[in-house]
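Continuing from yesterday's entry. The apo prediction looked reasonable, so today I'm repeating it with S-adenosylmethionine included to see how the binding region is handled. Same sequence as before; SMILES copied from the compound registry.
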Amino acid sequence: MIKLDARLSAVASLVREGVRVADIGTDHAYLVAYLIKKGICPCGIAADLRKGPLENAKQTVIDEGLSDKVELILSDGLQNIEDNSCDDIVIAGMGGNLIAEILSKAQWIKNENINIVAQPMTHAEVLRQFFIDNGFEITKEKTATDGRHYYCIMSAHYVGTNKKHDISYIYTGQLFESSDEITYRYIEKMLTTLKKKHSALIIAGKPDEENLGRIIDEIKNNMEKTEWLL
Ligand SMILES: C[S@@+](CC[C@H](N)C(=O)[O-])C[C@H]1O[C@@H](n2cnc3c(N)ncnc32)[C@H](O)[C@@H]1O
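Holo prediction written out below.
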């Protein structure tokens, strides 16, 4: 039985039960194989930009006896994924900029019935900004750690309206809905990075065009208001 690490387990937990899943940038297809073997998804698509990773995926699918349940597709992002061929779309392990770019090229995902599960390795704020600007609502966020790195995972779906949010929302999204220690550490780490960036601006005498000072204050305030389970 395939075992997922903490990061991919958190990704899997945001995929809905009983739906057709498409994993974009699948590499070994561990996620899709796990979701089907666990009975969470009846079938799925494992897609990747490159032939090598898709070969890895094929091997997993054969080893797990899932050839009749997993479609392997060579695809740049969602380009070769047919509209209406999946309900949940997973894009994990790529930068937030690339995930946003992939999503921006597929208009058919602007469908309220499609659940997007994204796990940006970097620049989660770019992805949240994309969701906000394009009429998507972030429904849930989770964090995970492998002991060295901290990850955030989010699910979103199209609602067609651009809701107003606090200025710090692109950095913390729905994370304050959770009060667990990993989320606390994730936000603490992010605050340290933002403070360093802000201090560097001040020392260089540059304007704070991204409003980092205000963003830091808002995040600190929300940290204090949250009852953390540490
Ligand atoms: C770091 S691996 C992540 C694998 C897996 N999703 C995970 O989270 O463990 C990134 C994978 O994304 C694929 N990839 C990169 N850009 C892509 C794109 N534009 N479309 C589809 N796959 C892409 C790479 O070939 C690689 O297999």
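Comparison notes:
- The first strand starts at residue 21 and ends at 24.
- Residues 8, 24-27, 48-50, 53, 76-77, 92-94, 102 surround S-adenosylmethionine (CB under 6 Å).
Will overlay with the apo model tomorrow.
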